[in-house]
C-alpha cells in the first residue's frame, strides 16, 4: 500500500527542519514482530527543539502517532496514515545527577538505563533490565517487571504537546495505575528524571543477571515477539487463563501462541500483522468462553487493515 506523499508540502512549510522525513517508510523492520505496513510519513527529529517546531507547524488535520523501539506494538498491514514520529539519537543521552538521580532521553532503551544506574552504584532501577523497549513507552504504560514499576522511581518527565508546547510532569501528574498512565494522549515524552538510592554496583549487576536468566528461562525473548500480549486481569494471571483455554501453541497462519510462555505471540516467519492480531483476538474469545474473563490487550495496535 502507498499513501500520498506529504514530504514536499511539509518540507516547504518547515525549511529549517533538521530531522529526517521519509514518505511511505516501511515500519516492519522497526517492529519486533517484523510485520506490518508503512508510515505515510516517518519523522525522526534531531532533538527536542526540532520536534517542538515540527509539531507547532504541522497542520492540525494530520494525525500523529509515536512509536518507540517497537517491542510492544502491532502495526496493521495497511500502514499508518499521517505522521509517525520515532525519536532517535537526539533523545538518547544519559546523565548521572547529584542525589542518586539519573536523567535520560525518551529513546534510551530500558536495559541501558538499568546498566547506567548499576555502573553509577544506583539501586532501585534494576527492574528495567527485564523490560523490552524504551523509556518513552515505559512512561506511557507504567512499564514494570520483577517487583518494580516506573511509578516507583520516576521523579518527573518532559513532554511536548500537539501544538509544540513543552511540559514538565511530576510523578503525581501521571495518574499511574497498572500498565497505564493517565497523561494526556497527545503528549510526546522526550526525557525523564529517575530517583535511585545508594547501592553496590556488583550487587546491582548480580540482580540484573538474575533477571536476565529468569527471562531467558521462561520467555521466548529470541523470537519475533511483542512481549506480554495481555494484561493480568484482577485476581488472575493472563498466561494461566490462556493455557486453561487450550491456546498454548495455537496458530493462525505463521503467527503462534508461544509454547514456552503462552502470554506471548510469536511470528514464526512471514506472519502478517492481521495473523498476529487475529490470533490474539481468537485467544481472547476462547478465554472468555472458558473462564468468563475479558482479556485486555497490553500490546498496542496502530494503523489500518490492508
Question: Could you please describe the fold and organization of this structure?
Answer:
- The protein has 8 helices and 19 strands.
- With 306 residues, it is of the alpha+beta class.
- The protein has 3 domains: 7-89, Uridine Diphospho-n-acetylenolpyruvylglucosamine Reductase, domain 2, CATH 3.30.43.10; 92-203, Uridine Diphospho-n-acetylenolpyruvylglucosamine Reductase, domain 3 (2-Layer Sandwich); 219-302, Alpha-Beta Complex (Uridine Diphospho-n-acetylenolpyruvylglucosamine Reductase, domain 1), CATH 3.90.78.
- The chain has a 5-stranded antiparallel beta sheet with strand order 6-7-13-11-12.
- The termini are close together.
- The mean pLDDT is 96.
Layout of helices and strands:
Elements: H1 7-13, E1 20-26, E2 38-44, H2 48-57, E3 64-67, E4 73-75, E5 80-86, E6 94-97, E7 101-105, H3 110-119, E8 122-123, H4 135-141, E9 144-145, E10 148-149, H5 150-153, E11 154-160, E12 166-170, E13 188-195, E14 197-198, H6 201-218, E15 224-228, H7 238-244, E16 251-252, E17 255-257, E18 264-267, H8 273-291, E19 300-302
Parallel strand pairs: 2-5, 3-5, 4-19
Antiparallel strand pairs: 1-2, 6-7, 7-13, 8-14, 9-10, 11-12, 11-13, 15-18, 16-17, 17-18
Helix pairs in contact: 3-6
